[in-house]
Amino acid sequence: MRTAFTLLLSLAAGLAHAAPLPPVARAEVDALLTRLQASGCEFNRNGSWYAGAEARAHLLKKLEVLEGKDMVQTAEQFIERGAATSSMSGKPYLVRCAGKAPVESAQWLKAELQQVRAARAASSAR
Question: What is the DSSP letter of 39?
């Protein structure tokens, strides 16, 4: 009984230290995943291609893990630590859009992040 209580206390303490992404970074990551899902592009992980909705779901799970370990505070950290490579195989994720050669997901997501930030800057300048 004492062991179970200690385990529960340890888990609760670990959750207390978990930090979600700051709001601006979370908005950027959400925008990236929305763009991926809506792009019509496919996402490759560990040799298999997935639709954008499946990619989004997978990357949200990875984000949750990173947040639980307090390993991500920016959209760039999310890309580098969660959306660039498979934690199982170490292979880079790829994005393949119609009529184009596949590119590494980090490259695709960083380009999209620049567009997200440019759109935000343009809308706040109005």
Answer: T
Take residue 9 and report the two structure tokens written for it. 């206390």
Total residues found in the chain within this entry: 126
Yes or no: say if 52 and 34 are a contact pair by the CB < 8 Å rule.
Answer: no
Tell me which amino acid residue 11 is. Answer: L
Cα dihedral 71, 76, 82, 86 sign: negative
Specify which residues 92 forms β-bridges with: 85
> Rounded CA gap, 27 and 8, in Å?
32
Phi, psi at 87, each rounded to 5°: -75, -15
The answer to whether residues 18 and 70 touch, using CB atoms and an 8 Å cutoff, is yes
User: What CA–CA distance (Å, rounded) separates 13 from 94?
Assistant: 36
> What's the pLDDT tens digit per position in 96-111?
999 999 999 999 999 9
User: How does pLDDT run across 42-99, given as a tens digit for each residue?
Assistant: 999 999 999 999 999 999 999 999 999 999 999 999 999 999 999 999 999 999 999 9
Integer Rg of the chain from CA: 17
